C-alpha cells in the first residue's frame, strides 16, 4: 500500500467529516484537452473529471489561479456562465456567482444563463417556477455582480410571460437543437422584436445527477461514503477573447452540501 495515498485518503476523510459544504473546480478544460491532444467530451463528461485530479481539488476550496483574469486583460475578454441548479434554493444562485467571481478574480460576470432544477415527470415549466430564481438574478444585476441574464429552453409563450413580468429583461434564450432542429418561427419573431439573442446548446436536461456525482466522488475518495452529500449546483464558465471570438478558458465549479440529520 502506498503510504502517500493512505495519507491523502485519511486527510480526505477528515475534511469531509468536518465540512458542511464541498466546492470543486475542474480547472481549465481548454488547456487540458490541448495537452491530451483530444477533443473535449460532452458537457456531462467534462464536468466528471478523472480521479487523479480529485485530491488536489479536495484540498482547497479556492483552486489554483489557472483561470484568474488579470486587470490588464479584463476588458479584452467576456466571462460567460451557465448555472445548472439542482435544487430550488435561491442562495445557491448567489453562492455560485460569488464563487465564480472569486475563482476568476473578477467583480462582475458579463452574462449568466440559468437552467432551473428539473421538474417532476409530467410537469411543465411555468412562470411561477422561474420567478424565484429570476428575482435573485435581478438582485445580482442591481448589485453589479452580473451584467446580463438569460434563460434556457423557454418556448415563445413562456419567454413572453417572463419578459412581460421581469424588471430586468432576459437578454438571451438558449434552444436545444437536439429537440428542435430548426428555431420555431414564433420564438424567432418574438426574440427579434424584443432584442433577445437566441443561442443553441447541446446540454442534457440533467447535467449531473445526484447518483453520478456520488459515484464520481467515490472514485476519487476510495472507501469514503458520500451518500449524505447532495449536489446543489453546477456552474460552467467560459472566458472568451472578444476580438477573436475564441474560448481562452473553460471550466466547471460544483457545490455539494452535507445533508443535516
From TrEMBL:
Keywords of this entry: Acetylation, Glutathione biosynthesis
Subunit structure: Heterodimer of a catalytic heavy chain and a regulatory light chain.
Pathway: Sulfur metabolism; glutathione biosynthesis; glutathione from L-cysteine and L-glutamate: step 1/2
SUPFAM superfamilies listed in its UniProt record: NAD(P)-linked oxidoreductase
GO BP: any one term: glutathione biosynthetic process
Record's keyword annotation contains Transcription regulation: no
Family, similarity comment: Belongs to the aldo/keto reductase family. Glutamate--cysteine ligase light chain subfamily.
GO MF entries: enzyme regulator activity; glutamate-cysteine ligase catalytic subunit binding
Record keyword Magnesium present: no
Compositional bias ranges of the Basic and acidic residues kind: 45-54
Superkingdom of this protein's organism: Eukaryota
Domain NADP-dependent oxidoreductase: 71-200
GO cellular component: glutamate-cysteine ligase complex
PANTHER family: GLUTAMATE CYSTEINE LIGASE REGULATORY SUBUNIT (PTHR13295), GLUTAMATE--CYSTEINE LIGASE REGULATORY SUBUNIT (PTHR13295:SF4)
This protein's name: Glutamate--cysteine ligase regulatory subunit
Location of region: Disordered: 34-56
Amino acid at each position: 500500500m502506498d503510504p502517500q495515498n493512505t495519507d491523502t485518503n485519511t486527510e480526505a476523510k477528515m475534511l469531509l467529516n468536518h465540512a458542511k459544504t464541498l466546492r470543486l473546480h475542474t480547472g481549465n478544460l481548454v488547456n487540458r484537452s490541448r495537452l491530451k491532444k483530444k477533443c473535449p467530451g460532452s458537457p456531462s463528461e467534462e464536468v466528471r473529471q478523472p480521479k487523479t485530479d480529485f485530491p488536489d481539488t479536495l484540498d482547497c476550496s479556492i483552486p489554483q489561479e489557472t483561470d484568474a483574469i488579470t486587470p490588464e486583460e479584463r476588458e479584452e475578454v467576456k466571462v460567460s456562465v451557465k448555472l445548472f441548479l439542482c435544487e430550488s434554493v435561491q442562495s445557491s444562485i448567489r453562492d455560485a456567482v460569488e464563487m465564480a467571481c472569486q475563482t476568476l478574480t473578477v467583480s462582475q460576470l458579463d452574462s449568466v444563463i440559468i437552467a432551473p432544477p428539473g421538474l417532476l415527470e409530467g410537469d411543465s415549466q411555468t412562470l411561477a417556477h422561474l420567478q424565484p430564481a429570476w428575482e435573485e438574478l435581478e438582485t445580482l444585476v442591481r448589485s453589479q455582480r452580473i451584467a446580463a441574464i438569460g434563460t434556457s429552453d423557454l418556448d415563445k409563450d413562456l419567454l413572453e410571460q417572463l419578459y412581460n413580468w421581469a424588471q430586468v429583461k432576459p437578454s438571451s434564450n438558449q434552444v436545444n437543437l437536439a429537440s428542435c432542429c430548426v428555431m420555431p418561427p414564433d420564438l424567432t419573431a418574438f426574440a427579434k422584436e424584443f432584442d433577445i439573442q437566441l443561442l443553441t446548446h447541446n446540454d442534457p436536461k440533467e447535467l449531473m445527477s445526484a447518483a453520478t456525482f456520488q459515484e464520481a466522488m467515490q472514485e476519487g475518495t476510495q472507501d469514503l461514503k458520500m451518500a449524505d452529500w447532495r449536489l446543489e449546483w453546477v456552474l460552467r464558465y467560459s472566458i472568451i477573447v472578444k476580438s477573436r471570438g475564441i474560448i481562452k478558458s473553460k471550466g466547471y465549479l460544483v457545490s455539494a452540501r452535507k445533508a443535516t440529520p
